[in-house]
Amino acid sequence: MAREKFRLEQFKSRDGRKALKLKVRTKPYWIWLAPGISVGYCACKGPGRWAWRDAAGQVKRFALADDNRDDAADGVNVMTADQAADYTKAKLRGELEASTNVEAMTLGYCVDVHYRAHLRARRKFEGNARTIFNHIKRVAPGLLERDVRVITKVELDKLRNALLAGNGVKKGLINATWNRVAKSLAAALRQVVKHRDDIYEALEPLPEERDNEEAAENVVLTDEEVGKLLTAAYAESWRLGVWIHALEGTGNRPSQVARLRIRDLHDSPEGPFLAMLKSGKGGGKRQRERMRDQFPVPITEGLAQQLRAASEGRDPAEYLFINEDGKPYAKGRTPYEMYAAAWKRIRKVAGIPAERDGKRVGSYCLRHTSITRMLLAEPIIQPRIVAAHHDTSVGELEAHYSVAILKQQAAGTKVRAVLRDRGLVVIMKNEKKKSAA
Fold first, then answer.
1. How many structural domains are present in the chain?
2. Is it true that the peptide bond before 379 is cis, omega within 30 degrees of 0?
3. Which one of 115, 158, 168, 281 is CB 3.0 to 4.6 Å from 188, fit for a cystine?
4. 150 and 24 share one domain
């Protein structure tokens, strides 16, 4: 049975309550007021009763509803819907003020310790907690020492504006990134401060307007640049070369490639392939289950030979990719932090600039290059196949790569090759000159 969803406006008038035709029952009908706050309405044979729910989940009835026209709402024994809502908020905030463990919690502790433990217990990605902490530390370090009970909407508004504006060293966040940060920060705060609906207004999502022109500016390397990059990586160290080779050869995200086990390397009559693990993109209740799903990613024989050499003499259950110290890339906070310094060195050796067209040239450009190369391949590879190979969607390809493809020289040729004049030539006549003559 679908869960009932009610709003306070539906209960503000007697006629409104009557129109709902609520069944008489002991269990209250809960009316949403704000995140974590609801007031209950008990439908009775006579006048209804208002109820609230404490932190332990106990339902407590406190006043009659003004269902009878003869009963004047006095705000104590008989209450209107607005009075009941105010009473509920006051009671819940009173409980919060009496809570000693919340009083002692700073925002830094709430995010980096309490929320991280919450994510770990539910087997979610702990890096979300650290990401919030680092963003706040960068623009408003003093906010981390603030008591979560007394943080105001104004302070969170300033935090949002500072992150969006950026500074001379680091660019500001785009709206989509802020929305992800705000969602995680709100989730962290709700673990300890459930009834401060005022501060959550500052964490509401901003409109996400995709700029296809900007999205298309993802850095794409030429085949020559990719070759120089791989040569520099193998020269730096063999295991680093294998890692960069795998990123380039699969086109998948570093977080996915890092989680591959030795047993995920397979041979088939069609050629070698990796049983790639799906990413956790999209969240949801099935996130962990989805991250265990696998899909085949074909690789070249040259890459397969390097991977066989890297897995020789090792247990099939071990992680396939390890650094020179023997530490798996999957065991770092993020894979990138384990090879960030090495990437800068090999990029410099390969003669590739740190930025191109205002975009940072990071290792993620190998993914952009792989996707663009497949989309421009001859014969044409269907976009849905390209999307499946890179564990993304056709919609994402269209949003981020369509303009980039049109900018390529080959794209113009493809479009022009299918244009037809149909033998029709229309010449516009100058009516003014004709009438003057």
1. 3
2. yes
3. 115
4. no
Distance between CA 361 and CA 369 in Å, rounded? 11
Q: Using only C-alpha atoms, what is the Rg of the chain?
A: 30
Alpha-carbon gap, residue 392 to 145, rounded angstroms: 39
Domain that residue 167 falls in: 105-209
Q: Give me 319's structure tokens.
A: 């992680």
pLDDT of residue 431: 46
200 and 250 share a domain?
no
Cβ atoms of 254 and 335 closer than 8 Å: yes
Sheet holding 29-34, edge to edge: 6-7, 29-34, 37-42, 49-53, 59-65, 78-79
| Domain-located, residue 421 | no
Q: How far is CA 70 from CA 11, 20, 21, 53, 62, in A?
A: 18, 21, 21, 28, 20
Looking at the fold, whether 42 and 121 belong to one and the same domain comes out as no
* Residue ranges in the chain modelled with pLDDT below 70: 1-4, 35-36, 54-57, 69-71, 93-104, 168-169, 194-197, 208-217, 280-291, 333, 403-437
User: What does the pLDDT read at residue 249?
Assistant: 92
368/269 same-domain check: yes
Q: Does 426 fall in a domain?
A: no
Burial of 320 (0-12, 13-18, 19+ CB in 10 A): buried
Is residue 436, in this structure, part of any structural domain at all? no
- Its sign, for the CA torsion 147, 152, 156, 161, is negative
We report the CATH number of the domain holding residue 354 as: 1.10.443.10
Distance of alpha carbon 15 from alpha carbon 79, whole angstroms:
16
Residues 50 and 110 in one domain: no
Quote the pLDDT of residue 405.
59
